[in-house]
Amino acid sequence: MHQVSNCSGSELSFNVGHERTMVFVDKKKKADYIAAFLCQEKISATSIHGDREQREREVALQDFRSGKCPVLVATSVAARGLDIENVQHVINFDLPSTIEEYVHRIGRTGRCGNTGKAVCFFDSSSDGHLAQSLVKVLSDAQQEVPVWLEEIAFGFQGERVFTSVNTQKLCIFKVLSISETNFGQLA
User: Fold this and answer.
1) Are 20 and 88 in contact (CB under 8 A)?
2) Is 155 strand, coil or helix?
3) How does pLDDT run across 122-166, given as a tens digit for each residue?
4) CA-to-CA distance for 110 and 36, rounded, in angstroms?
5) Is the CB of residue 159 less than 8 Å from the CB of residue 5?
6) What is this structure's pTM?
7) Cα 88 to Cα 92: distance, rounded to the nearest angstrom
8) Which structural domains are found in the chain, ordered by start?
């Protein structure tokens, strides 16, 4: 993994493509936008969210499970209750509102003894309420807690950060500048 200097969207494709990857977002429109962006970048992707017809959701899931579209961009509501095996990557483009949902999302890479990576974008202004819980989850899992996360959790106002979670070893990296993201328009 590497530090990212800004997020223009192409960083989403740095480690996805042929391996089964789930990308979680907070808005239906953003799910469609990111899936379309990845397709333009020659990465087969599909989206699933509550505004899609049941048949469209079934086709998207079948395409994801079969590997035809190895990237599934989903809202939390649409992804709830899905049991999908062999997910190598989870990308939390938008962190969920609760730590329980976070643990559920990243746990998708560690099912049945498999390992994978979970990548998260963290914005202290919108995700800061999760900082203390993230510190606790990491500590309880005997993972190294990054200094920047402790600083955010205990009062330091940080900037947007990028995290990479390997289900066997945790690594977290700080984004130097992410304010110029194209995805900010979709919030």
Assistant:
1) yes
2) coil
3) 888 889 999 999 999 878 877 778 888 888 998 755 454 555 544
4) 28
5) no
6) 0.74
7) 13
8) 10-179 (3.40.50.300)
